[in-house]
What we know:
Layout: H1 3-19, H2 23-27, E1 30-38, E2 43-46, H3 47-59, E3 66-75, E4 78-88, E5 106-118, E6 121-129, H4 131-137
Parallel strand pairs: 1-6
Antiparallel strand pairs: 1-2, 3-4, 4-5, 5-6
Amino acid sequence: MSDTMMATEVARTLYNAYNSRNLDGWLSHFTETSEWINVPTGERYVGIEGQKDNYSAWDTPFPNGKCEELVIRGGDGIAVAEFIGAGVHEGPLATPNGPIEATYRSSAVPFCDVHTIVDGKVLETHRYWDLQGASQQLGL
């Protein structure tokens, strides 16, 4: 498998695991020293336990949320995923300023994740999204 196919396939199966609520499948995609950075908020998740917390940070407030309209491009150990994060805010949303209780509003927010893939696993991710648009959609 070429580096381009491997990087994009790793990313594709990562999002499939999230969309099917397969936490073990999600975690299996990361290296032991992986780092995930949510750029708009500055949150950092490190290692497998960090990735579990990262998963919960999205799954808890959006238990039926999905990554829709997924487009993945990649090469040379890099995969870039663009998608719409769509769901209803049904649980507490952790933020650097404290939790936001459920608003029960729908949201559809554009995201872009840049993954560094090493030996078939995610070593690092930088996640970008429209924080202001998300806040407006949730009535915050």
